[in-house]
């Protein structure tokens, strides 16, 4: 393996460990079935691995990873085929979606509420789904703007509408989430 390829693989593995939550959250929001979540997770990881050479450091790694993963998830949803891509040069990618069960502070009730939240998020339009995920991850409007290419003002307006739609879908369980 040449030094450039080794550095590429080291960077990918470091980012995969550091930003695993991004992959998992997007997979859960764009795919409802565990098998589809695993497929999408693998597709996003593969796309980040393939695209790593195009990262120029003009954005934070997490911003760039969000952008690649969200674009991959949107394309994956549009595609009829649900099979992960394969590449002879691709590294072995982890495909397990971590469960929240067994983690401190995550009771069965909280896990159920989280499943309901993701189900409601999946009912939103893809663009709204992306915005809500980014907001729930604590990103600022400026950071969301960098990831999505929308203006900060547009992000604010779109999120206001998305939150209203999400609140409507969560009626009945929102008191439990609070």
What tags apply to this protein structure?
single chain; 178 residues; mainly alpha; Arc Repressor Mutant, subunit A; 67% helix
Account of the protein in words:
- The chain has two domains: 89 residues, Rna Polymerase Sigma Factor, Chain: A (Orthogonal Bundle); 74 residues, Arc Repressor Mutant, subunit A (Orthogonal Bundle), CATH 1.10.10.
- It starts with a helix and ends with a helix.
- The protein is an all-alpha fold.
- It has nine helices and no strands.
List the helices and strands and how they pair.
Blueprint: H1 3-18, H2 20-30, H3 34-51, H4 61-78, H5 108-122, H6 126-136, H7 141-148, H8 152-169, H9 174-177
Helix pairs in contact: 2-3, 2-4, 2-6, 3-4, 4-7, 6-8, 7-8
User: Per CATH, what is the topology of the largest domain?
Assistant: Rna Polymerase Sigma Factor, Chain: A
The largest β sheet comes out as: none
Global Rg: 17 Å
| Integer tally of domains | 2
Task: Please give the share of residues in helix.
Answer: 55-70%
CATH 4th-level superfamily of the largest domain: RNA polymerase sigma factor, region 2, helix turn helix motif
The CATH architecture designation of the largest domain is: Orthogonal Bundle
Percent in strands: under 5%
CATH class wording of the largest domain: Mainly Alpha
What class do helices, strands and sheet pairing give? mainly alpha
| Uncertain ranges | 80-98
Q: Report the oligomer.
A: single chain
Number of beta-strand segments = 0
> What would the average pLDDT be, to the nearest integer?
82
Tell me the span between the first and last alpha carbons. Answer: 51 Å
- Counted by DSSP, the helix tally is 9
The coarse silhouette is: globular
H-E string: HHHHHHHHH
């Amino acid at each position: 393996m040449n030094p450039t390829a080794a550095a590429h693989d080291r960077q990918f593995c470091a980012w995969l460990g550091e930003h695993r939550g991004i992959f998992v959250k997007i997979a859960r929001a764009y795919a409802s079935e565990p098998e589809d979540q695993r497929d999408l997770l693998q597709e996003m990881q593969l796309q980040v691995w393939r695209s790593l050479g195009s990262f120029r450091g003009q954005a934070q790694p997490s911003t760039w990873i969000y952008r690649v993963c969200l674009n991959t998830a949107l394309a994956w949803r549009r595609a009829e085929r649900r099979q992960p891509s394969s590449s002879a040069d691709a590294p072995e990618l982890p495909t397990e979606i971590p469960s929240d069960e067994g983690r401190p502070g995550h009771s069965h009730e909280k896990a159920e509420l989280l499943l309901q939240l993701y189900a409601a998020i999946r009912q939103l339009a893809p663009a709204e789904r992306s915005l809500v995920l980014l907001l729930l991850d604590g990103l600022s409007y400026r950071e969301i703007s960098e990831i999505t290419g929308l203006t900060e003002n547009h992000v604010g307006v779109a999120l206001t509408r998305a939150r209203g739609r999400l609140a409507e879908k969560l009626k009945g369980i929102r008191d439990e989430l609070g």
